[in-house]
């Protein structure tokens, strides 16, 4: 297996343009998986079976420990279903400074080792939440100090260097609701503070819209910094209520704020077209946050979403 997207036949989009640089996949998140082990989540075998049956060939690892962590076993499991791994995912708190480095690296190195062993080339890096995603309890202030921004930028650059040198992976930092890299202002500040040769983005269309951003504008303005995509939509009516009430992200997800395309925003075909116009190969991994959810809910949504994306040309 390889983490480099392989060529595939061009499929015309609704507008007639082929999206032949986009490689679509899905992730455990689309099956309601947020944690390594949780009785409310579907077993990993069912996720692998259903993601393949829904028509996807690329997956992410999801939370470390949800899928088998033995590379030989995981290779056998994904290969048997015609799947390949595009990326692993880690959470970090690098804004807290050098004191958290050892703990961060212990976690990152485990995930990076498995990611490399599965032939993937990307490590998605999500900043830690400033309020708990289960209880909504405030963990720390929502705004960083100038010193914390410096810690975040320098720590992320160090992480990129170490991951690249030791594992041959590229990091893609994921702006995310209820983290310190969320709004357009914060995303741009982070990009301007980091070395473009080291640090790039995983643009999640749903999270960016949730936080008021325009994905197409970001791609057109900072295209050289977009290294990976997560495809997701937000229900604008539920989002308006979330914003009005100041609802934390976890409860907002339980209200259905992240919805099945094409029912929400942003429109995905313009996003995919903008990404295609960058002229580079990009993974576009479907993620529809819906933790927790009934076990029979994800599969039909995944099938419909794959069909919808094919209609967009991806």
Automatic annotation (TrEMBL):
It comes from Streptomyces smyrnaeus. Coiled coil: none annotated. Transmembrane segments: none annotated. Residues 48-309 form the Xylose isomerase-like TIM barrel domain. This is TIM barrel protein. It holds the Pfam family AP_endonuc_2. InterPro entries: IolE/XylAMocC-like, Xyl_isomerase-like_sf, Xyl_isomerase-like_TIM-brl. Residues 1-22 are annotated as: Disordered. Residues 1-10 have a biased composition (Pro residues).
């Amino acid at each position: 297996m390889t983490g480099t997207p392989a060529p595939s036949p061009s499929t015309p989009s609704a507008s007639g343009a082929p999206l032949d640089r986009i490689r679509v996949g899905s992730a455990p998140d689309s099956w309601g998986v947020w944690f390594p082990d949780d009785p409310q989540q579907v077993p990993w075998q069912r996720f692998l079976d259903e993601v393949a049956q829904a028509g996807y060939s690329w997956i992410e690892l999801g939370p470390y420990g949800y899928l088998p962590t033995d590379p030989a076993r995981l290779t056998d499991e994904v290969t048997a279903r015609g799947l390949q791994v595009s990326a692993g995912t880690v959470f970090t708190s690098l804004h807290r400074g050098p004191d958290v480095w050892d703990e961060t690296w212990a976690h990152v190195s485990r995930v990076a080792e498995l990611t490399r062993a599965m032939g993937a080339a990307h490590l998605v890096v999500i900043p830690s939440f400033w309020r708990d995603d289960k209880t909504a309890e405030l963990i720390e202030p929502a705004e960083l100090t100038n010193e914390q921004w410096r810690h975040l930028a320098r720590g992320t650059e160090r992480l990129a260097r170490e991951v690249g040198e030791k594992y041959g992976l590229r990091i893609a930092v994921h702006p995310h609701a209820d983290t310190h890299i969320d709004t357009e202002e914060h995303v741009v500040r982070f990009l301007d503070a980091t070395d473009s040769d080291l640090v790039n983005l995983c643009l999640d269309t749903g999270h960016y819209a949730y936080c008021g951003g325009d994905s197409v504008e970001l791609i057109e303005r900072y295209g050289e910094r977009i290294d990976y995509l997560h495809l997701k939509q937000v229900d604008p009516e539920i989002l308006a209520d979330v914003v009005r009430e100041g609802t934390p992200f976890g409860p907002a997800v339980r209200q259905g704020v992240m919805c099945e395309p094409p029912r929400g925003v942003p429109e995905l075909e313009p996003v995919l077209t903008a990404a295609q116009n960058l002229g580079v190969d990009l993974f576009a991994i479907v993620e529809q946050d819906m933790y927790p959810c009934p076990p029979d809910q994800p599969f039909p949504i995944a099938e419909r979403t794959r069909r919808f994306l094919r209609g967009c040309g991806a």
